[in-house]
C-alpha cells in the first residue's frame, strides 16, 4: 500500500472480470466486499448475499456485470449475415435502479462493463439520482486479468462533463495504490470513454484481419513469405503504430472483440453513417476462417483422414470458448462439407490444425498425420505452413 489510504470498496459482479479485479484491490490492502447472483467465493475478500450490503459504508462501488449479446452473436459462428444488434443492458439497468435505494451523494459508482458510445447518457443517466457515476472500462485479456489491471496500457475514465473531480481523484488514488507501472490516465466525457474502449478493441480486430489477409494472398498466389511481409510492417512504427497483433495466424477471438464489432455494426446503422466498416471486418474474419476450413477439407479429402483441431478455446490455457476461432472454423467445415471436427485429440491419424500458437510445436502426432500450421513455426516433416507456398 505504501502511503496510500485504505479504501472501502464494493463489487457487484464477481465473474470473469470482477472477481480478479476485486482480488487485486484486496491484495493491495483495501477493504473489499463483493456480491454476485451466483455462489462465488472470494479469494482474499468477503462475499455477501445482497447488493445492499455491498453499498453500506463503501466509498467506491464497482459494477462488473455482463452486457451480453444473444448466443448467436458471440463470434464462434458467422454473424455478418445477421441483423446488427446492440448489447443487452437489462442487468445494468436493474442494478442502477436498485442502487438509488442505498447510496448517497458522497458515494461513487464505477461501471467497468463494455457499452456502446452514447449508452450511459441515453440509457443510464435517468436512473442516477442520489449518487455519482464514472465509466471506467478495462483493457484486459482473459487469463491475464490481474496482471493487466496492475499494468494497464491506459486507464480510461469517463464523467458526465468530461472533467476531473473529487471522485476521479479518489479513483486515481485507488489505481495508483495497485499499479506496477506508471499509469497513463485518459479522462473525458462518458462518450469519450465509451469510444476509447470499443474502438481500441475493433482496432485490434482490424489489424488481425489485415495481417491474415496477407497469409490468404500468400496461400493463393505463392512465392510470398507471409512472415517476412508482416515483420516488415510490424517494424514500421512511424505510421503503423506497433508490432502487436502483426503475426498472421488464427483470427480474432474471445468474449470481447468479435462482439464489439458486431455491436458497432448496430451503432453504424443506428447513426445512419452510410457505411459499415465493422461488418466488413467481421466478414473478413469469417471468410478467412472459411479459407482455412476449405484447406482442411481439401487435405482431409485427399488423404482420407479426419479433421482434428488442437485448441478449442479462444486462447491457450484459458477455458473460455466465447468467440473461439477454432469453433468458427469447425462450424465453417460443417457448413461447407458436413464433416464433423474432432477437438484436442492426439490419438488418431488425421489432418491437424494448430489452433493455438506455440502450444503444439513440439507435440508428437501419430505417424501418417498431416499438420496445418497457420503460424508457420512448427518444425517437422509432417507440417504444412498455411500462408507460405514456394
Overview features:
6-stranded parallel β-sheet, 390 residues, Rossmann fold, alpha/beta, 15 strands
Short overview:
This protein is of the alpha/beta class.
Structure characterization notes:
This protein is of the alpha/beta class. The chain has one domain (66-390): NAD(P)-binding Rossmann-like Domain (Rossmann fold, 3-Layer(aba) Sandwich). 37% of the residues lie in helices and 14% in strands. It has helices at 18-27, 51-55, 90-99, 119-124, 145-150, 166-178, 190-221, 226-234, 257-270, 277-303, 325-337; strands spanning 8-12, 31-35, 46-47, 60-63, 108-111, 132-135, 155-159, 185-189, 224-225, 307-310, 341-343, 351-354, 370-373, 383-385, 388-389. Strands 3-2-1-4-5-6 form a six-stranded parallel beta sheet. The chain has a five-stranded parallel beta sheet with strand order 11-10-12-13-14, covered by helices on one side. Strand 5, helix 4 (119-124) and strand 6 (132-135) form a beta-alpha-beta unit. Helix 7 runs antiparallel to helix 8 and helix 10 crosses helix 11. It is elongated. The chain starts with 7 loop residues before the first strand and ends with a strand. The model has no long low-confidence stretch (mean pLDDT 89).
